[in-house]
C-alpha cells in the first residue's frame, strides 16, 4: 500500500486521530487591543441574511465581518513590514506544500502558571531538544502555555497598567528558532509575541524576525495539551485571500493514537 493509502486506513481505523487546535469563533472572541493612536481590528460581527423564511425559504446563511487576525488565525509574512517585499508572502501565494508540516510542542505551562510573562529562551529550547530531539528544519514550533484555557476577554488579554502580560519567545529565543530554519511559530495567546515584546530590541521579535525571514505565525491556538512533544502533523491552510496578510483558519493536527 502507498503511504497515502496507509494514512487513509489509519484514519478510518482510529490509529491516527484528528485533533482540533482551533478556538471557537464568536462575537465575544477576544481581539488584540492596540494603543489608542492606532487603528483597531474589529471582532467578529454576524448579520443574518435568511433563516428558512421569506428572505430565503430553504436556506440559512449570514454575512460576517472581522479582521484577518481574529480568533485562531494565520500570520503571513506580508503581515509585518519586514516581510512586505518577500516573494510568495501573502495568503494567496504561499506554496500549498508549506501548509502541511510536522510540529514540535514546547510545554511551558508549569512556568507560565508561576510567571504569566515567561519567555522562551535558547536555553529552554536546548533543554527541550535534549529530552525530545532536534527541532527539524521546515517544522512548526508550538508554544504550549495553557493560555487558551483562560475564560473571558479580561483574563485572555491580561492587560495591566504597564501593558499586556503574556508568555512568548525572547529575542534570543526567536533567533535560536530561526537558526533551526523552522517554517513557523504558534502560540495559544492572542499574538505570537510576548505581551511585553513592544519593549524588546527589536520590538515584537516574533513578528519582526520571523516574518522578515519568510516564516509563518499561528495565534490563539487551543488543545496543545492534546499533542505529543513530537510526532504530530499540522494542517494550516488560511483563506486564499488575494494579498491577504493572514486569516482565521481551522488548524488540525494528525496524531498517532496512544
How is this structure best described in words?
It is a single chain. Helix content is 19%, strand content 26%. With 258 residues, the chain is of the alpha/beta class. The strands form four sheets. Strands 1-15-13-5-7-11-12-4-14 form a nine-stranded mixed sheet. The protein has a two-stranded antiparallel sheet with strand order 2-3. A two-stranded parallel ribbon has the order 6-10. The chain is globular. It starts with a helix and ends with a strand.
Question: How are the elements arranged and paired?
Answer:
Elements: H1 3-13, E1 16-20, E2 45-53, E3 56-65, E4 73-75, E5 100-107, H2 109-114, E6 119-120, H3 122-132, E7 140-144, H4 153-157, E8 159-160, E9 163-164, E10 168-169, H5 171-179, E11 184-187, H6 205-212, E12 216-219, E13 232-235, E14 246-248, E15 252-256
Parallel strand pairs: 5-7, 6-10, 7-11, 11-12
Antiparallel strand pairs: 1-15, 2-3, 4-12, 4-14, 5-13, 8-9, 13-15
Helix pairs in contact: 3-5, 5-6
Amino acid at each position: 500500500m502507498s503511504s497515502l493509502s496507509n494514512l487513509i486506513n489509519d484514519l478510518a481505523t482510529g490509529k491516527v486521530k484528528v485533533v482540533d487546535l482551533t478556538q471557537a469563533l464568536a462575537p465575544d472572541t477576544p481581539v488584540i487591543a492596540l494603543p489608542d493612536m492606532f487603528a483597531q481590528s474589529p471582532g467578529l460581527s454576524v448579520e443574518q441574511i435568511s433563516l428558512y423564511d421569506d428572505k430565503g425559504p430553504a436556506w440559512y446563511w449570514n454575512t460576517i465581518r472581522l479582521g484577518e487576525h481574529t480568533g485562531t488565525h494565520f500570520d503571513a509574512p506580508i503581515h509585518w513590514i519586514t516581510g512586505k517585499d518577500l516573494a510568495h508572502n501573502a495568503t494567496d501565494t504561499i506554496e500549498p506544500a508549506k501548509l502541511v508540516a510536522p510540529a514540535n510542542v514546547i510545554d511551558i505551562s508549569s512556568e507560565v502558571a508561576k510567571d504569566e510573562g515567561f519567555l522562551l529562551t535558547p536555553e529552554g529550547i536546548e533543554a527541550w531538544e535534549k529530552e525530545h530531539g532536534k527541532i527539524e528544519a521546515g517544522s512548526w514550533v508550538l508554544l504550549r502555555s495553557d493560555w487558551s484555557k483562560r475564560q473571558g476577554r479580561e483574563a485572555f488579554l491580561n492587560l495591566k497598567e504597564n501593558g499586556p502580560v503574556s508568555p512568548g519567545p525572547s529575542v534570543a529565543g526567536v533567533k535560536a528558532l530561526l537558526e533551526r530554519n523552522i517554517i513557523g511559530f504558534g502560540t495559544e495567546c492572542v499574538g505570537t509575541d510576548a505581551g511585553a515584546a513592544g519593549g524588546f530590541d527589536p520590538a515584537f521579535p516574533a513578528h519582526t524576525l520571523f516574518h522578515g525571514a519568510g516564516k509563518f505565525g499561528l495565534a490563539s491556538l487551543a488543545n496543545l495539551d492534546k499533542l505529543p512533544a513530537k510526532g504530530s502533523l499540522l494542517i494550516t491552510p488560511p483563506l486564499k485571500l488575494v494579498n491577504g496578510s493572514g486569516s482565521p483558519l481551522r488548524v488540525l493536527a494528525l496524531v498517532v493514537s496512544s
